[in-house]
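A protein record pairs a chain with a discrete description of its three-dimensional fold. The following entry can be read in just this way:
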Amino acid sequence: MSAWIEGEVVANQQWNDRLFSLRVAAPGLRFVAGQFARLALPAPPGSKEPMLGRPYSFVNPPQDALHEFYFNVLPAGPLSPRLAALGAGAPVWMLDRANGFFTAAELPAAGALWCLATGTGLGPFLSILRTDEPWEKFERVVLVHAVRHAADLSYSEEIAGIAHSHAGRFDFVPFVSREASRGALHGRIPDAIADGRLETAAGVPLTADNAHAMLCGNPDMVRDTQAVLERRGMRRHRRREPGHVTLETYW
């Protein structure tokens, strides 16, 4: 059975009033890029379980010494406000085993990999794209990050580093839905696929013949994008039934 291990917060970055990233030292924890950990703090008195935990995807690649988690604070939530308040040196707990199959090893090879994220769904893609495997399976990679406001666009330095390391093979397309933002597409991912704007911006086809799409983010985006891709003949990928679309809902 899995057990809780104690880690230590090394840094807490606040991107804006809702978005935070924790960097945590926990040397005994191993994972595959794209997987998630279960972060926890002691449960309030009277709780049935000793720890209160929630799943959060790793942002860092497995080779990094520190683990990083990108999350949105729910003001009335039982855990995220407490995580956001942690400072350097504070303890935080994680299960000793990572989970999830949203990994490059699960994907069939294709001409292009499309990584479509909303909000904190960006996190697992930053982990995956800083490993070798996606670049060995795909000739081109497109990372799409959709947010409501320009202030929600995060990790620009990490994205620039991926672009530098894989020049000519990587494209980044940001979306901002609730305001005009220079350099970003306006609206929602599924609409921009349907009308062709997204492929025009990336310069890469998104078709069953050419691409595999990974979707990570809020359930509405995942559902609506999957429906648009199904109309293009792109079906959900399963181990026993290979396809073109891999899904994970993540807020």
Q: What stands out?
A: The CA atoms of residues 118 and 146 lie 5 Å apart. The helical segments are 80-84, 122-128, 133-137, 156-165, 189-194, 197-202, 219-230. The mean pLDDT is 96.
